[in-house]
C-alpha cells in the first residue's frame, strides 16, 4: 500500500496516510484542526512538506 505524508498548512501536524485517507483529507480537511487541505500538503518525504 502506498503511503504519503500530510502536513497541515495551519497546525503543522504531520501524519502518514494511505490513498483512502488522502482522499478523505482533501474532502474534509485536516483531521486535527479541520483546515482545508490541498494536493500541495502531501509529500512522499515528511521533511519535504
Automatic annotation (TrEMBL):
Taxonomic path: Archaea, Methanobacteriati, Methanobacteriota, Stenosarchaea group, Halobacteria
InterPro entries xref list: DUF7560
Protein name: Zinc ribbon domain-containing protein
Amino acid at each position: 500500500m502506498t503511503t504519503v505524508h500530510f502536513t497541515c498548512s495551519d497546525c503543522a501536524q504531520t501524519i502518514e496516510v494511505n490513498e483512502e485517507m488522502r482522499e478523505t483529507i482533501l474532502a474534509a480537511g485536516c483531521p486535527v484542526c479541520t483546515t482545508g487541505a490541498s494536493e500541495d500538503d502531501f509529500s512522499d518525504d515528511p521533511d519535504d512538506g
